[in-house]
Structure formats: C-alpha cells, structure tokens
Design brief:
The protein has 431 residues and is α+β, with helices and mostly antiparallel strands. Helix content is 35%, strand content 21%. The longest helix is centred in the first third of the chain and has 16 residues.
Amino acid sequence: MSKDVVVIGAGWAGLAAAVAARRAGHRVRLLEMAAQPGGRARSLDGEARPQRFDNGQHLLIGAYTATLGLMRAVGVDPAEVLLRQPLALLDATGQGLRMPAGAAVPAFARAVLGLRSWPLRDRVALLAQATGWLLHGFRCPVDWTVARLTERLPAAVRTELIEPLCVAALNTPAADASALVFLRVLKDALFAGPGASDLLLPRAPLAALLPEPALQWLTRHGAEVRLGHRVQQVQRAGAGWQVDDRPCHEVVLACSALEAARLTRDLQPHWSRQAAAFAYEPIITVYLHCAGARLAAPMVALPSDAPDREPAQFAFDLGAIAGPPLADRFAYVVSGAAHWAARGLRSTEEAVRVQACASLRRTDGSGLQGIEVLQTVAEKRATFRCTPGLQRPIRAVAPGLQAAGDYVEGPYPATLEGAVRAGLEAAAALR
C-alpha cells in the first residue's frame, strides 16, 4: 500500500531512503535544512564546475556495493565519475603496499610479501597476524582498541600501515579506535573478494556523485523536495505522524544525530540521549596549488611519526585523478583533527605547506615554487569517534518512525556506505 513518507535530511542516508521509498511506490516528501543536499559529503556552494571544492576527500572502495548501486539507480555511471584503481598505500616516494588483482587472500599475501622496504620478519609477522584475524572470524573483545589489537606487530607495520588505515577508515586514532569495527572494515575491504579493496577516487565534485542526481531523480519521479527548511516538530497524529503542520503515515529521521536527538527529545527520551551523546572528530582539508608539481601517486600516505608537526595523513593529486581541469591542484587531509583545529586553520595551513614541500615533486625535476593555499575546509563534526563498546541508537525509534544515518547501530564506522545502507534499511522497514 502506498503511504505518505517524510524523510528529514538530504544527506546520503536521507537520499538513499527517499529514493528507495519512492521506488517502492510511496509518496515521498524530502525536507533538508541546508540549502543543498549531501550532508557531510557535499560540494561547497558558489564554485563554478569543475573548480568547486568539496568539504573533504571522501573515498569509496569496491566493497561499497550499496552506494554504487544507488548511484546507478539515479542515473550515475560510477565508471565516469570515479577513478578505480587497485588499493595502494604508497608513501611520497611511491613505495608501499600494492594489492594485485585476484582472489583476496592470496592477493593480500602477495602485496605484503612485495613490501621490500620492510624486513622479511615484519612481513611474516603481519601475515601471521592477519591469518589469526581470519581464523577468528575477524572478531575480538569489544573493549579492545586498534592499538591493543596490533600491539605485537612491528613498529614499522603499525606506523606505516595500521595507523593510516585506521584513521582513514574510522577517523579515530588507533589508540582510541574500536578494534572490532576496524576488523569489520578489513574483512569487507581486503578479504571480501576480487575488487572489494579497489580505491574509487572521485573524479567529479561530490555533488555529482549522488546528491544532485538523486535530487533530480526524486523530482522527476514526483517526490516533493524542500531545501532550506528546518523541521521544528515531529509528533504523533492518530495512527500516523505529523511533521510540523502536515500529517503523514511514516517518518525517516535522516538528519544529523544532534538534530534527531532534538526532534525525539519528548517522543523517545532514552533514544534521544543516546543520539546526543556522541563525541566527534573533525577533518580538515587544505587545497593547494603548485604549478607543474605532482605526487608519486593519485593518493599518497604521509608519515605519521611527527603528528605535532605534520598534520595531514593523506595527500591527493587532483589533476592525476580528475584530469587537466584540476591540474596542479592537491588536497591534503587531516583526519582526527581536533588538535589542529584547536591550533587554528592558519597554523594548520602553514604546517601542511611544509608537508607539501617534502612530498611534491616538479614534473621537470626543478625545485618547487609558489605553493598556494586555495581553500581550507574544516568539518567540525565530520564523524563520530568510533571507540570500543560505543552504544549507538537503534534504527527503530518508534512504530512508523525510523532513524537513518551512519551513526545508527551497525557494523560500520561513519562512512558513505554506512549512511547509504542505513537509509536503505530504514526504507525497507516502512510498514
């Protein structure tokens, strides 16, 4: 039976829920408080394409099947907007882990054994540890951190592989990050089958990957979309619900955790308190221009042994990813950036500029000149801190009231795939 469904929030979770509900035949009203869709994975307003900046360098991997399926459903060809390449965690010299094609387990073994910069004993230690995780079903005690999980690995393995992977996947330092969630990410990314670990780097602005095409798809298919509208109240109305002054049958809360907590404070106080209790980690992205420069690879991992001086963990060569329109542009990403956010964006920019001097090379072999900061974007609540035993609120807030977001109870950290899956699950649960 077709129902009136209100989706509150047009981030990736809300867009997934709205598209899935409309495809199921429901009448959909999508409400978003911002002037544009995308939530915490969006393109910034006021920039002419293809020069517009994103609010961060959001990565996808081949295992993100729900996200890729949703993109196709709204008419986006992932092959056109994403640069797909085998997983490579390379340093500024181009050395590091390279996943070859083929079945996941032997491919990972070949990649590790091919790391000639590590002594053989370090490579064997990592393979032995990974085999143990595999044999134990990628499970561990719920109170373990990633640092505890990997404490017996050699220092080089921890600093050059584990810590970059952890901060990239969970946006939480290894000393504080949930080992259980980290293992789930490794299982799906490295051991889920051929292509699951492939990196998918956006060649187009984030808005073109999903938010804008999804909004256009919804409009073409008869959904009501309203941007710049902050919902003031959700309340029961007979057997259904009322959102502000209009009734509906069901509601999907796909707004931020803080907004969802506000809207459910009187309806479900316990759920509201859980949603309001998250601690967050910021992400800072510094966009640079340097004429005639390049990185050793489209994405490189930067040293993590001096975090007080070197803020960014990853750098992206936007010209190598997106082509000539973004030539000579680079994005340096500071994850788990609370320390640097407190020091201020100017200090962060100067420290990143020093990192860029050490990691960039001129294509003609001459010295670097004129590294210019184009834009610095700080997302204060980029992701929740993914710590051991974190209690995340359940999807079912009340009968007919579902929550959708990367923060809802589930196996994934705050990722695009986690958000999209939450939205699809909320839509599937419509009564």
